[in-house]
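Exercise 7. Given the encoded structure of a 176-residue chain, write a plausible sequence.
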């Protein structure tokens, strides 16, 4: 599976560590083809939309061809990076900046794991990490968990993902 990485200056160092971490976990049974979409050099004045859009465009192109790929993008909070990624047709980017201080439960009291839900229920194919909110170990743990969680494929979840993708059809953006 291809995994695209992109980060601005705020996530630059952590991106390199996560790329190596994911590459080290590649096996014959679970091969990871790690791709760096930038930034390729540390520049404190860079603009995250320019960099993150490269990962979004690559992931969208794969999605259009039915190629299962993922993207992991990083920025200070991860908020803007998720917004950029979600502009691309076929990209469903979830935001993560750490475990909650208390257990999260739904209205019935069932405990939830938001990171797992992004994959199992929403088939998120991109993960945006808030680099200034996560330690290196926490980021590695989140990436490892997220990459290992399959989409449930349940009818209601599949129906909802298809509706999300149809809504996104208007927002396809081309970048040079």
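Solution.
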């Amino acid at each position: 599976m291809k995994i695209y990485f992109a980060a601005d200056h705020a996530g630059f160092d952590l991106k390199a560590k996560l790329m190596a971490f994911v590459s080290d976990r590649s096996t014959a049974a679970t091969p990871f083809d790690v791709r760096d979409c930038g930034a390729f050099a540390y520049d404190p004045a860079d603009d995250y939309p320019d960099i993150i859009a490269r990962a979004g465009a690559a992931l969208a192109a794969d999605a259009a061809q039915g190629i299962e790929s993922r993207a992991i993008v990083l920025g200070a909070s991860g908020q803007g990076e998720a917004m950029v990624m979600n502009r691309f047709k076929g990209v469903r980017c979830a935001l993560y900046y750490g475990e909650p201080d208390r257990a999260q439960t739904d209205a019935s009291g069932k405990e939830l794991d938001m990171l797992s839900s992004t994959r199992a229920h929403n088939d998120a194919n991109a993960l945006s990490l808030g680099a200034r909110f996560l330690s290196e170990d926490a980021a590695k743990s989140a990436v490892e968990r997220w990459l290992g969680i399959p989409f449930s494929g349940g009818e209601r979840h599949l129906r909802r993902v298809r509706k999300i993708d149809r809504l996104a059809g208007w927002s396809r953006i081309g970048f040079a």
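Remark. The mean pLDDT is 91. Students should compare their own answers with the one above.
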